[in-house]
Design a protein that fits this description.
Length: 490
């Protein structure tokens, strides 16, 4: 068998995109709650008010707000995370569907603002703690082990408005208080933890990953340092609470190919990889890599670590590495190529050998095998693929059926790539949780229209729909994959 007998098959979601109930149960406002709905052509925006009383909405990616900005939710804007897919009220129904598919694990996040509404309180919100007690109990009832992300694009806006969120070192203490609270509360219920979701997203904008309303390189470097220290402290806290806890990191990862075999393109691809490797290097190895220190030096970024901080990073390395993989990119150092680039999302050069999704994300299962090989060779730690999937426009037929053969094809090819990485390359892989196992709001565009799930959720971007759940063809296919432990992919 390619996959181990205790391989963790499941699916992945995030509270900010799925949970809803944004102002219920004592929950506070998170960074995602302030993000408007967007589309393929209209970027998501972040709302704030300045001291003159004027409400502004600036682009989420590339946000650079004035110092007097007060972030929040204001009338006249559509905030999709406020309702999400309503897991807050329908978690029993949804977890039952996951149990029917045979999930071994369910990757989800705790919304920090449901536990500490402003982020800096001394005492937690009991109603929020009770909600996750109920969710975890429901998972365990169905034989599903929770895989919990502690911070998944859900920074308390209270911390942003108070002192700039992760730019300020005081946020470390607030995060550690939160980690200690949930670690102690859910001891025996949660065994697998992830610290920060796609922590390397800090590299192209501070808001999504850290609630930092700035692109200033110095502030991003400071926020990264504070998150990396907080991650290391979280590992130590959770290990001290329960020796059975397994704590991993999580980065956004994808193969980066040189656009040509020109040496300058090869060098460009290699340097581009460091945008992902940097965070993982610190979390897995326990120290800042030389190439990052040199980059800071070249760019005039002030950086230092105390001896205590160095010890924290050294003693707080992760037990395993997890990452998201959706696509690959090409890198070029040719100005003419860059002037006509048309790759994935906001970066990369299009690969002429690959097909793309409706949203321009190029489909490359071989890139997943290579990613597993690169990561395992570099770190020699167990791996988990905790996001992978195809965002598509699903069509509900007159009889209510949803034929998503394109999603099955995508997932089948990526599972085959994982099998090859295990069987041929010797990679140690612990689990696989495809993204958006049930339809939810897209993080990049804020749409419900961009669907990933095995289960269709009847919410539309125009506000219509009752939230009814319907199985897609991929539901029964993935159920078969799990029951056969990845051997039956037809």
């Amino acid at each position: 068998m390619s996959f181990s007998k205790d391989f963790l098959w499941g699916g992945a979601t995030a509270a900010n995109q799925y949970e809803g109930g944004w102002d219920q149960g004592g929950k506070g406002v998170s960074s995602s709650d302030c993000c408007t709905r967007g589309s393929r052509t209209q970027p998501r925006k972040v709302t704030y008010k300045t001291s003159d009383g004027v409400v502004h909405a600036d682009m989420m990616f590339g946000l650079d707000a004035p110092e007097d900005a007060v972030f929040g939710c204001y009338e006249g804007f559509d905030y999709p995370s406020h309702e999400g897919a309503d897991f807050y009220h329908r978690y029993k129904e949804d977890i039952a569907l996951m149990g029917e598919m045979g999930y071994k694990t369910f990757r989800m996040s705790i919304n920090w603002t449901r536990i500490f509404p402003l982020g800096y309180e001394e005492e937690p919100n009991e109603e929020g703690l009770k909600f996750y007690d109920d969710v975890f109990d429901e998972c365990l009832k169905h034989g599903i082990k929770p895989l919990v992300t502690l911070s998944h694009y859900e920074t308390p806006v209270g911390l942003t408005n108070k002192w700039g969120s992760w730019v300020d070192a005081r946020t470390i203490e607030c995060f550690c208080r939160y980690v200690k609270t949930v670690g102690e509360r859910y001891k025996g219920k949660v065994e697998y933890w992830l610290t920060f979701n796609e922590i390397n997203c800090l590299g192209f904008g501070g808001w999504m990953a850290a609630g930092v309303p700035s692109r200033d390189p110095q502030k991003i470097a400071d926020a990264a340092k504070h998150q990396l220290i907080a991650s290391a402290k979280a590992v130590q806290i959770l290990h001290a609470i329960d020796a059975n806890n397994k704590v991993g990191n999580m980065i956004g990862y994808g193969m980066i190919y040189p656009h040509t075999c020109a040496p300058r393109d090869v060098l460009k691809a290699w340097s581009s990889f460091n945008g992902s490797y940097f965070y993982c290097d610190v979390q897995a190895r326990g120290y800042y890599p030389a190439y990052k220190l040199k980059e800071y030096e070249r760019n005039g970024i002030e950086f230092s670590l105390t001896e205590e901080e160095k010890e924290t990073l050294k003693n707080g390395t992760v037990d395993f590495i997890s990452f998201s993989y959706y696509m690959s990119n090409c890198a070029s150092d040719d100005p003419e190529v860059l002037a006509n680039q048309g790759g994935n999302m906001m970066f990369g050069v299009k690969n002429p050998y690959l097909k793309a999704s409706d949203w321009g994300w190029q489909i490359d299962p071989t890139g997943l095998r290579l990613s597993l090989d690169y990561m395992y060779d570099r770190y020699q730690l167990p791996l988990m693929v905790v996001e992978n999937g195809l965002g598509a426009q699903d069509q509900v037929e007159e009889d209510g059926s949803i034929h998503d053969s394109y999603r099955i094809d995508y997932l089948r090819d990526h599972i085959k790539a994982m099998k090859d990485a295990i069987e041929i390359d010797g990679v140690e892989l612990w689990g696989y949780t495809p993204w958006g196992c049930i339809d939810l709001v897209s993080a990049s565009t804020g749409e419900m229209h961009k669907r990933y799930g095995f289960v269709y959720v009847d919410y539309q971007d125009d506000g219509t729909g009752q939230g009814d759940r319907s199985k897609k063809d991929s539901f029964d296919w993935y159920k078969k994959v799990i029951s056969s432990n990845g051997e039956d992919l037809d």
